[in-house]
Write a structure and sequence with these properties.
This protein is an all-alpha fold. Helices cover about 85% and strands about 0% of the residues.
C-alpha cells in the first residue's frame, strides 16, 4: 500500500510560502514587542524603589518641618 502525496500547484505553493512569510514576520514583531515589555518591566522595578524612597524622604522632611514649626 503506497501513500499518495498531494501534488501542489505552483500557485498553491506560492500562496503557502507567502502565508509562512507573513506568519514569520508577525512572530518577529511579537517577539520584539515582548522583549520591549520585558525591558520596560525590568527597568520599572528600580525606578519604583527610587521614587518610593524619594517620596518617603519628602514626607519625613515635611513632618519634621511641621513638628519644628509647632514645637
Amino acid at each position: 500500500m503506497m501513500c499518495a502525496t498531494p501534488v501542489l500547484e505552483p500557485a498553491d505553493l506560492r500562496e503557502q510560502l507567502a502565508h509562512i512569510d507573513r506568519m514569520r514576520a508577525e512572530l518577529q514583531k511579537l517577539n520584539a514587542d515582548t522583549l520591549k515589555i520585558l525591558q520596560d518591566t525590568t527597568l520599572a522595578r528600580p525606578q519604583l524603589l527610587f521614587h518610593g524612597a524619594v517620596t518617603m524622604a519628602a514626607m519625613i522632611g515635611t513632618v519634621a518641618a511641621i513638628v519644628q514649626l509647632f514645637h
